[in-house]
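Morning!

This is the sequence you dropped in the shared folder:
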Amino acid sequence: MVDNNSTWQADPNLPPGVARQVITETEDFTERAGQIISQGNLVADASTLNQQVSYVSASGNVDLGNANVTNTGMDINSILRYTCMTSGCLPHIYNPVINEYDLVGSIAPLETFDLVYQSGHVASTIEAGGTLTLGGNLVNNQTSLPISGVLITPRIDQSSVVSPGVNVSVGGLFGVASDPNSPYLITTQIPNINQNGYVGSSYLLDQLGYQLDHTILLLGDPFYETQLIEDALLKKLGTRFITPGITDANAQITQLYDNAKEQMGSLNLSVGIALTDSQQSLLTKDIVWLVQQTINGKQVLVPTVYLASSDAQLKRHCTKHRRNIKRP
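The structure's back. Tokens below.
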């Protein structure tokens, strides 16, 4: 779901009589994107696969057979609308792409001039940690592509921070911990899931020798936090895998926590404190760091992904390829 938000902005660079209105599309993720996720292999038996702002991801191989695939993301746009209330308006218009006033717009009295630009993108992803096999045609964001060079992920958002959205009224698989002595705010409601098979934020705290204050909770048990981080990466970056050579969720999260421990001293990081812009710019490797937030009236440590600046540039602007893409 996309909503339009409109605000009026003062701009000292505009001449008298010219007003600037900002109209921005925002995406509402309360309607959860569709996901098909496998920690092993995934095989689809279909003649047609139409996917829009959704995710198909496997740690192993993905075999789509002879399906004709349409994979479509969604652009998020913004409009700078200038309105001239007097005569002779020739303002130097702000260009958000390069952060300068280099555009000249000629606006007649009581008319408007719109500058439309892309301010974000919601990805639609088909990815495989191993081999992606596709025998049919692929249409990716309305662009036909040859099978020998399958481009999997459309353009992605331009943020170097991936902070998961937390919904305490999760219901179903997860819920707020009923045990008042639980170290977690949110726990898995299905008892037969082996929490020892997943890596949670307690791993980083143990590595750091950090003793958690009894008034502060961990966001969730290891299984919940693993799912949350994967969901956040998919929604923000269009992929579950951001560490080269790693296509296993536990191995990736472990590596991101190890990277955090490695860089903690040189960047003067503190548990519970979000990284400053300066600290983010000095990151040499992607990390997961624990940032304190108030959720449901409680102080909680939330695992947050920070991308190293060089990696962030690459992940923002490149279209993802998987190692082995073949045609049957």
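Headline: The mean pLDDT is 73.

More detail when I'm at my desk.
O.
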